[in-house]
Amino acid sequence: MFIAIAVGLMYLSGLFIYNSLIGKKNEVENAMGGLDAQLKQRYDLIPNLVSSVKNYMQHEASVLEKIVELRAQGLKKNIRPGEKEELNKEISKSLNGLMVQVEQYPELKASANFQELQRTLFSVEENIAASRRFFNAAVTDYNNAIEMFPSNVVARLMSLKRREVFNIPDYERKSVSVQNLFDGKAS
Amino acid sequence: MNLNEKISKEEIKQLYSRKIRPRIKKLENLRRETLLYVIIYVIILTLVTYKIFLYLNHDNDVGAETLKWLMAAYGTVLGLGASFISRKFVKTFKKEVIQELFKALIPGSTYMTTSFVDQKSFKDSKIFDSYNNYSGEDHVRGTIGPLQIEFSELLVKKEINSSKSKTEIIVFRGLFFAIKLHKNLRQNTLILHDRSESILGRSVGRYFQKMSARDEYRLVELESVEFEKLYAVYSNDQIKSRVLLRPAVMENLTSFKKKYKDRIDVSIRNDRLYIAVHCFKNHFEPKMFGDIISFKDIREVYDLVMLAREFEEELELEKAS
User: Fold this and answer.
1) Smallest CA–CA separation between A43 and chain B, in Å?
2) Do B139 and B112 meet the contact criterion of CB atoms below 8 Å apart?
3) How many CB pairs under 8 A join A and B?
4) Which of residues 103-122 of A touch B (CB under 8 A)?
5) Which residues make Cβ contacts (< 8 Å) with residue B236, sequence separation at least 6?
6) CB burial class (10 A; 0-12, 13-18, 19+) of residue B19?
7) Which residues, 6 or more positions from B273, have their beta carbon under 8 angstroms from its beta carbon?
8) Which of B221, B222, B239 lies closest to A127 in CB terms?
9) In angstroms, rounded to a whole number, what is the distance separating the alpha carbons of residues A58 and A49?
10) What's the average pLDDT block by block, 10 residues per block, for chain B (321 residues)?
11) CA distance B82 to B308
């Protein structure tokens, strides 16, 4: 009788842990999907942004071409997740650099269309940052579950692997050179 | 002087001495008269109750149960009677002093002594899930900067029925603010006083927080350890809630909580902000003994109203998309 109860309890615990792990795994996928949606929104903004600034910022043509090229690569269907993340980091870096350069073009800065684009881009970047934070929270929760006892036992049976959180790119870890920013150089 | 700008301690002192103090002086005679009537009433009631006790106990046989009921009746009649006698004084105080105070702090505002924030607003906030009795007083409506604000004191109770008895617990007592924002944040987010994590620790506390989530809300796990010890956040949108609660905002709210010790629960529902400040003290009633209302009391009222304004500022809603 006691053995039957013990076995029953173990079975129910195992079932609870299994469902919980599936839920956490799906939450990570959900967070990734949310981030992809925000990145897609940024991709959609880029053509409008480039057409707005190219007539004013003729000297920055190479930067604009780079952004367009990165966007085209990001939209390819067979791109690996790691590669996609690197591309998105490059796009962020290029867009940040472009926004710093805009300071040298007062006519462009004053343009209502550009200001609206800038606001939208800022809002999208905020959403991307928030999506990354959500993804990191979901991954941390998932990693904790697959590594802590007793759920790690069930996780091993399900062959669940640890996921990596988003890290900031190396260039963002370096100190910012304010002088370079004023001089219009990359930091 | 108004709540659109921060008011210094000196300005509140000036408000107190120039506008409030003269009105308090006018009420002094009424206060003494009311106090005298209350004292006379207490003496008469005590004598009558004692007479009744002697009558019931003429054979030294008054039981504990009877004595208990007698004392309960005495207490009830005493409270009701004192409240009835002092109602004219309280009404005059609120009209002459409290109304004047809010006119100075929130120009153009309306103040109604017996009205209170609509129950629909309280229910829409989703801060509290169930209650039976809803009442309040001291309702203020006005505009502070770009915000349309209303607040009142509320007393909200819930009946708990068991097989043996029925008890009433207080769900909320304090000031409740309902603020119409000038932008729609397109999210439903609760920022609640943390109960679980600070007592049970991070892992166990979070488990109970997750279990407590109701309706469309789900727990939002944030990075700031300090913030998480003070608040529990629930939202229907994991991304928008994180746009709202950026690291800088979490730091602001952590500092805010350390400055103001009152328990605060906040709800953001699209273009509405609700703030529940739990406090048991009745801030808009006059005192019978000593100063009817002191500078310290005025300062507390100002701090409480500013608390809602400051909290809204700490959220940096202008920057939230």
Assistant:
1) 19
2) yes
3) 32
4) 122
5) B187, B188, B189, B216, B217, B218
6) middle
7) B177, B178, B179, B181, B266, B267, B312, B315
8) B239
9) 14
10) 63 83 86 91 93 80 80 91 90 89 87 93 92 93 86 92 83 92 89 82 77 86 90 93 89 82 88 90 82 78 77 71 53
11) 34
CB-based contact B210:B219 (threshold 8 Å): yes
For range A148-176, the mean pLDDT = 80
Q: Give the distance from residue A20's alpha carbon to the nearest chain B alpha carbon, in angstroms.
A: 12
What pLDDT digit, counting tens, does each position of A17-64 carry?
Answer: 999 999 999 999 999 999 989 888 888 888 888 887 777 777 677 778
Planar angle of CA A129, A135, A141, nearest 5 degrees:
140
Q: Is A126 on the interface with B (CB under 8 A)?
A: yes
Tens of pLDDT, residues B134-187 = 999 999 999 887 788 999 999 999 988 877 778 889 999 999 999 998 888 889
Q: Which of residues 128-157 of A touch B (CB under 8 A)?
A: 129-131, 133-134, 136-137, 140-141
Q: What is the CB neighbour count within 10 angstroms for residue B4?
A: 14
A32 contacts: CB under 8 Å, gap ≥ 6: A135
CB contact under 8 A, B321 and A123: yes
Q: Minimal Cα–Cα distance from A127 to chain B, Å?
A: 6
- Which residues in chain A touch residue B233, judged by CB atoms under 8 angstroms apart? none
Q: Tell me whether residues B221 and A137 touch, CB distance under 8 A.
A: yes
What are the chain A neighbours of B242 within 8 Å (beta carbons)?
A: 129-131, 133-134
Cβ–Cβ under 8 Å, residues B128 and B170: no
Cβ–Cβ < 8 Å for B277, B305: no
